[in-house]
Amino acid sequence: MQITMVAAECAPIAKAGGLGDFVHGLARGLAARGRQVQVIVPRYDCLRLDCVSNLQPVGPELWVPYYDERIRCDVQCGQADGIRVILIGPSSAQGFFDRGVIYGEPDDLERFAFFSRALLEYLHRAGERPDVIHCNDWHTALVPVLVREVYTGLGVTRPRLCTTLHNLGYQGVAGASVLRQVGLDPERMMTPDRLLDPHQPTAVNLLKGGILYSDSVTTVSPSYAREILGTEVGMGLQETLRACEHKFAGVLNGIDYDTWNPQSDPKIARGFWVDSLPNKAVNKMELRRRLGLSEVRKPIAAVVSRLDQQKGMDLMVHAMRRVPMSGGQAVLLGAAQDPEIDARFRVLQGEMKGNPDCHLELGYDEELAHQIYAAADLVLIPSLYEPCGLTQMIAMRYGAVPVARRVGGLADTVFDANYGDKAFEERNGYLFDHYTQAGLDSALDRALWLWFRYPEYFRQLRINGMRTDHSWDRSVQQYLDLYDRIRR
Ligand code: ADP
Questions:
Q1: The CATH number of the domain where 27 resides is what?
Q2: CA 300 from centre of chain
Q3: Contact in structure between 399 and 467 (CB atoms under 8 Å)
Q4: Which of 224, 267, 304, 383 to mutate to test the pocket of ligand 1 (most atoms within 8 A of CB)?
Q5: By Cβ atoms counted within 10 A, which residue in 17, 40, 191, 335 is the most buried?
Q6: Neighbour count for residue 167 (Cβ, 10 Å)
Q7: How confident is the model over 213-225, as a mean pLDDT?
Q8: According to the model, what pLDDT value does residue 155 have?
Q9: What distance in Å separates the CA atoms of residue 45 and residue 191, rounded to the nearest whole number?
Q10: What letter would DSSP give residue 221?
Q11: pLDDT number for residue 33
């Protein structure tokens, strides 16, 4: 079976968050099971070319339709962390992928619509016939639409199409011109049963198109699947999803056990595992030195996150003040795309400057993220909503106990130390329900109390988390079953 994954991100070459980890982890898992798999991403100027080997041109000269013109693209293939990757780089005045960033440009819709058309044009011209094209989020949600509306008419054997929804907070809502750009007829496409946005009668909703035109639609956890079908967490797409319930499922993500392995992680000061937990303390000491925190007997509660509303920004700010007052140390590593949010955290960073028990690091830093997980006792994830969340799984693997809101994938992976019907060995964290400061405090205080009063139980909680299986194995099998089903 030949599987082509298409996405805006793929770790480690182009990663802004969990989407990059998903594409990387699933592609590697599929390859490990002997499937032919390749990943197609844009050739961003900020792409980590140092992580790609054997880079070479591939396919015939490629000219991609763009309104009434055509734009020439360079296509290269190479190997990144054992995965075959195809990089599509348009040469045009707009410099679609020469912006120094993956996202956040005013013309993001146009950029990724172009990429969607370009990758299909490449597959078509190069004579590649994947059995399955696996699309991800709104960036590539036009792919299933284009396959059925344009490319089947060109005589291509139709590949099966799977779309994974990583976050309904981003749907790709655009004006009709995006359809003309890729060669679709706005009159035909802008109807309630096709791409018309459920809220704005003059707008196109790309993600809705991906849902309707795919053979299978997945999201990244069973709880988030239920939430988006049945509540306003579906952000206007509930009805579309309910109409597609027969082909919709929640499959929990895994984490890549090679990237996230506390025993052999080259980014951390000292490797450790369940049988060598005291080594974790060396990482704690190193982190304190690096960040200028005092070296005293205190738990470290950390946040590693994008900084935006979804991630529970207000509660993070609250925690940065509350943890030091409760006898702990607070560390935050976060990057904000929104300048206002960035400014807010910079003020907080200034306020905490020189504080021996609190440190904020603003920006994206892969190495520091590993070091924080390795050092932390608690990792705070107070999300407003959370499709899956990888942070809690990474934290657990590194012996840090998650304190999380009971939503989406967090509810599927974090099991409360005090409440619930799980056996003690399966309990691995602390949960709270209400999105309020009091809600977060109710879980945080219980965690801190255990750390101070019953270190032996706390140690056991860490070990329970470390032993929980969050590998890709189970999820890869579920995706393979799903691909088999849609190919029948
Ligand atoms: P998201 O909604 O951002 O995809 P996930 O929890 O699914 O959230 O995945 C987040 C991933 O990005 C994790 O691997 C986490 O460690 C990483 N990450 C988030 N923010 C940062 C940052 N500022 N620096 C480094 N890594 C980060």
A1: 3.40.50.2000
A2: 25
A3: no
A4: 304
A5: 40
A6: 22
A7: 98
A8: 67
A9: 37
A10: -
A11: 95
Indicate whether 200 belongs to any domain. yes
Can you give the pLDDT at residue 156? Answer: 62
- Please give the distance, rounded to the nearest whole angstrom, from the Cα atom of residue 17 to the centre of ligand 1: 5
Is residue 262 assigned to a domain?
no
> How far from 417 is each of 26, 133, 319, CA to CA, in Å?
30, 41, 20
- Give the residue numbers spanning the domain of 350: 274-467
Residues 192 and 337 both lie in one domain: no
Return the number of other C-beta atoms located less than 10 Å from residue 462's C-beta: 21
Give 315-358 pLDDT, tens digit per residue: 999 999 999 999 999 999 999 989 999 999 999 999 999 999 99
120 in a domain, yes or no?
A: yes
478 and 400 fall within a common domain: no
Give ligand 1 pocket residues (Cβ under 6 A): 17-19, 21, 304-306, 333-335, 364-366, 369, 388-391, 394
Confidence check: pLDDT of 154 > 80: no
Query: Does residue 267 form part of some domain?
Result: no
Distance 426 CA to ligand 1 centre (A): 25
Rounded Cα gap, residues 33 and 217, in angstroms: 22
pLDDT tens-digit profile of 434-464?
Answer: 999 999 999 999 999 999 999 999 999 999 9
3-state helix, strand, coil in the chain (%, to 5): 45, 20, 35
Q: Flag whether the pTM goes above 0.70.
A: yes
pLDDT at 429: 98
Residues 182 and 240 in one domain: yes
